[in-house]
Amino acid sequence: MLELRAIRKAYRMGSETVVALDDVNLQIHRGQSVAFVGSSGAGKSTLLNILGCLDRPDSGSYRLNGRRIDALSENDLALVRNREIGFVFQNFQLLPRVSALHNVAQPLVYRPMKPAERFELARRALARVGLADRGHHLPTQLSGGQRQRVAIARALCGQPSILLADEPTGNLDSKTGEAILRLFDELVADGHTVLMVTHESEVADRCQRVLRLSDGRLVSEKCNGGDLHARVA
Ligand SMILES: Nc1ncnc2c1ncn2[C@@H]1O[C@H](COP(=O)(O)OP(=O)(O)O)[C@@H](O)[C@H]1O
Ligand SMILES: [Mg+2]
């Protein structure tokens, strides 16, 4: 359902060029859970941002559900992002002045649906993450773990084909982080495709596939609960 071929991405910093991704090849099937690991600067966030249509590769192809999307216009890419991608960030990125319910419903504003329908979907997504009774709270009136649940509900609300998370437990204490990881486990059990970046091996090992990046390249893959093998690229 998701295929990267020969993906390259470089950033120019004055006269220097930083190669963030170099010849990345990858196939991920519907329903898989994948962790991207590697040291700081390895290219994890760049890869996740390209997968999430927040950024584009300089070269190479990206197919999502059979459709080539690396060459789409900004507008079309935004549409794909809105329909197909749910993104969860380390720092939650909620709108501070509106309620949890409004935050969750926000991505649906770009869809042709009536407000009542939008809020019904948002209510369902909040209930899915165990926050049915917190819809009217502002982000500041919620704990860190609750804020991340709101962010997950927002990511789920539009029924995307993939859920991406960049260090989703990075700003949470370990007990709260554990609750968020259990929620991701449930979403994978429900058939969601979940791709996450983490630097913690205990977090990565909950995923079916652990892909290691080093200097912008995919250097190894570990499959949990199955056979182990090295080298993918
Ligand atoms: N917007 C940017 N401008 C310049 N360099 C960048 C930018 N984003 C990332 N980089 C560089 O690309 C490399 C990969 O970064 P990143 O994907 O954020 O790594 P990771 O998430 O694994 O820590 C790093 O060397 C980083 O400094
Ligand atoms: Mg990063």
Outline of this structure?
The chain is an alpha/beta fold. It has helices at 44-51, 74-84, 100-105, 115-128, 144-157, 174-189, 201-204; strands at 2-13, 16-28, 33-37, 59-64, 67-68, 85-88, 162-166, 193-197, 209-214, 217-223. The chain has one domain (2-223): Rossmann fold, CATH 3.40.50.300.
Task: Give structural attributes.
single chain, 233 residues, alpha/beta, Rossmann fold, 6-stranded mixed sheet, 4-stranded antiparallel sheet, 28% strand, globular, binds magnesium ion
Query: Which blocks of ≥5 consecutive residues have pLDDT under 50?
Result: 227-233
CATH architecture: 3-Layer(aba) Sandwich
CATH superfamily: P-loop containing nucleotide triphosphate hydrolases
Distance between the termini: 18 Å
Proportion of strand residues? 25-35%
Structural class: alpha/beta
How would you sum up the major sheet? 6 strands, mixed
H/E element string? EEEHEEHEHHHEHEHEE
Count of β-strands: 10
How many helices? Answer: 7
Q: Main sheet: which strands, in order across?
A: 6-7-8-3-9-10
Radius of gyration: 18 Å
User: Would you tell me which CATH topology applies?
Assistant: Rossmann fold
- CATH class category name: Alpha Beta
Number of domain modules: 1
User: Compounds present?
Assistant: adenosine-5'-diphosphate, magnesium ion
Mean pLDDT: 94
Relative helix content? 25-40%
Shape: globular
Describe this structure in words.
The two termini are 18 Å apart. The chain has one domain (2-223): P-loop containing nucleotide triphosphate hydrolases (Rossmann fold), CATH 3.40.50. Helix content is 31%, strand content 28%. The chain has 7 helices and 10 strands. The strands form 2 sheets. A 6-stranded mixed beta sheet has the order 6-7-8-3-9-10, sandwiched between helices. The model is unreliable at 227-233 (pLDDT under 50). The protein has helices at residues 44-51, 74-84, 100-105, 115-128, 144-157, 174-189, 201-204, and strands at residues 2-13, 16-28, 33-37, 59-64, 67-68, 85-88, 162-166, 193-197, 209-214, 217-223. It is of the alpha/beta class and 233 residues long. It is globular and about 50 Å long. Helix 5 packs parallel to helix 6. Magnesium ion (MG) is lined by residues 44-45. This is ABC transporter ATP-binding protein. Residues 2-233 form the ABC transporter domain. One of its GO terms (molecular function) is ATP binding.
